Amino acid sequence: VANRRYYTEEQLNRLLGVPEQRKNVAYARVSSQGQKNNLKNQMDFITQYCNAKGIILDERISDIGSGLNYRRPKWNKLLQDVEDKK
Question: At a CB cut-off of 8 Å and minimum separation 6, what does 49 contact?
């Protein structure tokens, strides 16, 4: 195959500036205060899943806010951290 180069994920991450040590973050959201119990259930499920897969969570983030807009400060902060390659 001519004119092709193959890179490992490690090489690609280095080229893109992705840090070697990345954080594992669990994020859960519900739309209203009335669903607060569902928020806890979501986070419990995510935590159990990660534990079963051997994934160590560095942070757990939860928001209460509509999924129809971006007025969710914790979500927006998480997205910004991803864009900033944190």
Answer: none
- pTM for the full model? 0.72
Q: Is residue 53 part of a domain?
A: yes
Whether 65 contacts 71, CB under 8 Å: yes
Query: What residues form DSSP beta bridges with 43?
Result: none
Side chain identity, residue 56: I
Q: What positions carry a catalytic annotation?
A: 31
Q: The domain that contains 43 carries what CATH number?
A: 3.40.50.1390
Give 11-54 pLDDT, tens digit per residue: 988 898 887 777 899 999 999 989 989 999 999 999 999 999 99
